[in-house]
User: Fold this.
Amino acid sequence: MSVESHFHTPLQEAARDVFARILKLTDFQVVGRDRLAFLEETGRSAIFAFFPHTGHLDSPAVRKAVPPNLRGKLLYPAAADYWHKDGVRGRVKAFMSSLVVPNFPMYRYEAGIKGMQESLDQAAEFLRSGYSLVASPEGTRSDLPLQERQLRTGVAELALMTRKPIIPVGLIGMEQILPRGRIIPSFREDGVKRSVRVVFGEAINLDTHDLTGERRNLRREISAQLKADLVNLCTDVRTGLGS
Assistant:
C-alpha cells in the first residue's frame, strides 16, 4: 500500500479538515507562509519543527497553517509508547489519532538504540520520498520558560541524514488554549477569541553549514541554531501582540 493510500485517504483528509474547524473558535492567523513556496517544487520536502509543544492541538494547528495543496505531503512522527501501543485500546487510539493528523510510530528511549535508529531510518526514508515531517524538537511538553527548554537532537540528526532543510515553526497562543494538564480547551477570554499565531521562519539549510565535525557536535550546533530561531520567532510575535 502506498503512502498516499495509507496515510492520506479522502476519508482521513476530510476528517482532519473537520477536526481543524475547532481552531476557527480562535483568532487564528498564519505568518510567513510564503517561506514554504519551495515545497511546491516536485520532490522537495522539509522538516517542520514546531515550538513550544503545549498539547494535542499543536499538530492540527500546524497542518491548518500549511497551504492546502501541501497537506497531502505531511507526516507526523508520533510517540509509539503513547499513540501506538499494543492491544485493542492501542489500535483504537492510533486510529483516532490518524483522523487528526497523518502519523506513524516513532520509538523513543525506552525502545533502545536499535528501535530509535529504525524509527529514524523510516522517517528519513519518508523525507527522501518527498514527504515533509512535522515534529516537536522538544519531544514532550514542558512548563519551563522558552529560553530554558531543551531540544532533543532527533530533528538535527534527520537533517544530517537526508540534507533536508528544517523549517522553524513558532506556535504562539496555544499555551492559553490547552495548557499542560487541561483537558477542555479554553478558546475565549472575557468573551473574546484567544489569539493563535503560527509563524514559519526561514528554513535552516545544511548546505550553508560546515559538516566536517563530529556528528554529535553537529547535532548540537544545528539544534542550538534551531532553538535560537524558534525562541526569536515566538518572542518577536509576542512582542508585536503586546504580550
